[in-house]
Amino acid sequence: MPEPKVIEPVVEPVVEPKVAEPVVPEVTPPVEPPATEKTFTQTELNAINLKEKNKVYKSMGYKDEDEYKAAKQKHEDDMGVAEKLALKETDYTTALTRAEKAEAQLSVLSAGIPAKKAEKAVKLAATYDGETMDAKIAAMLVEYPEFKSNGGTAFGNPPGAPGGETKEQRLEKIFKASLTS
Question: What is the pTM of this model?
Answer without folding.
Answer: 0.39
